[in-house]
Design a protein that fits this description.
single chain; 6-stranded antiparallel barrel; about 35% helix; 2 domains; alpha+beta
Amino acid sequence: MDERRTGWVLIVVLVGQLVYLAVQGARAGQTRLEAVGLRLLGPMARGVASIPEGLKDAREGVKLRGTLVDENRRLREEVAVLRLRLLRLTDVEGEMLRLGSAMRYSTPPAGRIRAVDIVYVDHTSWLRTMILYTGKERARKDQPVLSPGGLVGRVITVSGPYAKVQLLTDRAAAVGGMILRTRRQGVVRGTGRGSGLELDYVPLQADVRPGDRVLTAGIDGVFPRGIPIGTVIAVEAGGQLFHRIQVAPAVDFGTLDQVYLLDYQAVPQTLKEAAPGAKP
């Protein structure tokens, strides 16, 4: 009886162990299947979950780009204003050193500048011109046109929100120029050949050297004093009286896409014209 009971106990124990091992094997198989599934489907799940975040980042990127474009435009205008102020301050400093205490004189006011877009450029003919879109605020005839590098030209025709500009390199353009180092004045003209300029009417006895900076002299009634025109690159004897001076423009006209209109009151044309009956 005892031996029979002992045998049944052993059988029950063995069956229990077999059941336990079977359950553990099933769980282990399930765990392996889960691991394989996670490995295959995990990246896809992460990709799907990241789509809303990606769209959000894209929207934020577009918004940030628009903000950066506006900020870049504003900073470019500020840089142009600061450069113009620096040039005028440099010129005023030179005047103070030259005139000493005799500083009781007035200069024509040069006001604000505003950025405008270039919509057309004509480099094909000897007439070097461009057309600007000025928007609601119209340009004025003879209004100076600048870039951060220096003088670009002047407005010659206005038609609604558009303004035609005669470039400094135009063969018919003429600007009162001044050599910064010596204050010697002359007339800067476009050569009509590429972007070349010439400084005329500078006497042979005048001290002119390659590398001299040329600024507007403020004597032509159109441009204020102190705007960069270019740099002397060659000096030759052009005749019995005057040098032949070649000037490289301060502005790279081939890269312009935006310029600035300077709020400056030009001398009225009626005052520049000769009085009736006056001898030339």
